[in-house]
Amino acid sequence: YFILQATKLSEEQRPVLLAPVLSRGWAIVENRDAIFKNYKFENFQQAFAFMSYVALNAEKMGHHPEWFNVYNRVDITLTTHDCSGLSDRDLQLAGIADEAAGHFV
Amino acid sequence: YFILQATKLSEEQRPVLLAPVLSRGWAIVENRDAIFKNYKFENFQQAFAFMSYVALNAEKMGHHPEWFNVYNRVDITLTTHDCSGLSDRDLQLAGIADEAAGHFV
Fold first, then answer.
1. I want to staple A6 with a disulfide (CB 3.0 to 4.6 A). Which of A32, A33, A87, B14 is the partner?
2. ipTM of this predicted complex?
């Protein structure tokens, strides 16, 4: 298989495609074309199980998060280095992360 | 099993017990009683395999890292919240992390 080059979201796409993501608790990062979200779980086991789920999918997509973890907290920032900004891959990975987190609610 | 309360390193223990850890590339964090180290791997697979190894051991010890990852990079900070500073658990977890990273050299 091969991975296509990521394409930055166009000005027309941005409001339409970002709206559902922002409504799920993601926020636009200041001074950077990126989105972030903080997740809080019950404990480290859940946080790392979440991270493992996201990691396997990220590797499969060839698109990886920037993330910080301490105990039950995971802070994720998504952006696409290939196109220096947000691409559909970030939206897809955001969806995967929210889906994964949903298993622990 | 049960986990004993962590004890902060004493002033006598610090230079002796920290020396080997510092010689392995760990550094003292400024304005905080903590140590940190940056690891760089070949790719995300290796970085996350490293994190998984550390995570399983951290959970077993009941002592967890603060860490940041992006692609092949993992930055770890260790400190012990129970005793508001460095304890022998941090030194032990630093040893485990270095051992894990050694598998990828």
1. A87
2. 0.94
